[in-house]
């Protein structure tokens, strides 16, 4: 078991989301953790998530977790 925070750790936290951007075409999108959990990625560590651009289909993407309150006690 990993000590890395998972999608499920953030899914119930309001105001916390991922901002994903494409390095190829510069498209940017906000992704809710609840949507990722519904898509079956609830147990995936956030650090291991991979995305594909919805505009140009490139896998050259990066992301950051944003929010006003992360709510992860003991997982720093």
Characterize the structure shown:
The protein has one domain: Single Sheet (Rubrerythrin, domain 2). A hairpin with a 5-residue loop joins strand 1 (16-22) and strand 2. The chain contains two helices and three strands. Strands 2-1-3 form a three-stranded antiparallel β-sheet. The protein has 76 residues and is α+β, with helices and mostly antiparallel strands.
How many domains? The number is 1
Major pleated sheet: 3 strands, antiparallel
Terminal residue distance: 16 Å
Tell me the structural class.
alpha+beta
Give me the strand/helix succession.
HEEHE
CATH class type? Mainly Beta
Quick one: overall form?
globular
The number of helices is: 2
Helix content: 10-25%
By CATH, the architecture is named: Single Sheet
The number of E-state strands comes to 3
Radius of gyration (CA) equals 13 Å
Give the CATH topology. Rubrerythrin, domain 2
Uncertain residue segments: none
Oligomer: single chain
SSE layout and pairing:
Elements: H1 7-11, E1 16-22, E2 28-32, H2 33-41, E3 61-67
Antiparallel strand pairs: 1-2, 1-3
Keyword list:
25% strand, 18% helix, alpha+beta, three-stranded antiparallel β-sheet, Rubrerythrin, domain 2, 76 residues
Task: Kindly summarize this structure in a few lines.
This protein is of the alpha+beta class and 76 residues long. The chain has helices spanning 7-11, 33-41; strands at 16-22, 28-32, 61-67. A three-stranded antiparallel beta sheet has the order 2-1-3.
